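Let us practice reading a record.
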Amino acid sequence: MINFKFNRTMQAAILAMVTLSIIYLSVQSMRANSWYFSARNTVQHMTADPADYSRLSDAKHAIALATQLEPSHPHYWQLSAHINMLTINAFKDSTEATQANNMQIYKEAEQALLKSVELRQSWAETWIALAQVVSYQEGASERVYEYIQQAKSVGPNKLSVHLGIIQLALINWPNLSPKFKALYIAELNLAVKHGYHFFEVFNLAKQVNRLPTLCLSLQFGNAFEDVRVAHLYKVHCK
């Protein structure tokens, strides 16, 4: 009888501990989620008004708390990397943005994205973001090419993947290897199959000051016949 009562007491204690653990983890998750949305909403505000970076430190603080409270959430690490990149954009014309500081921020963004893909390998956009961040540090290196291949393996038909690779190639164009140039042409041919969405490529090229390179690429090939007669082509490729 004593053993029976002891077993029941132990079972009750274990159940209570499990219940408390679940409650604790749930509270932590809710707190992390709240901080994540605080950071995301701040970023969305800055996206709507790029000139307003006054709350960037608030977003960094919020996402840092989210990743501390729930480090197993890939979305949180993805946003953390994005906020790091916004930091570079915010101070690109400032003396605070030294090359050394930028490289440290790129490295932090890279580590955040590596954690994100470790937790969720099926999101192609994360692999592309990782390839881009690494390319800022190394150029169009073999490691960048491998990350691109990971993106293509999980999202072979995604326009975001095609456009991300195209922009990455344009950024590194002066030092691009023949292998990367062939990949760039292949992605242009895939992206054009997405109809009018393809014309986003002009904005991407404009952002990195590579419109002439893109326009030259589109002058040849049957795949771009409809593009060459389109209004946007004539506006950007005079």
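A brief commentary: Residues 192 and 226 are 9 Å apart (CA to CA).
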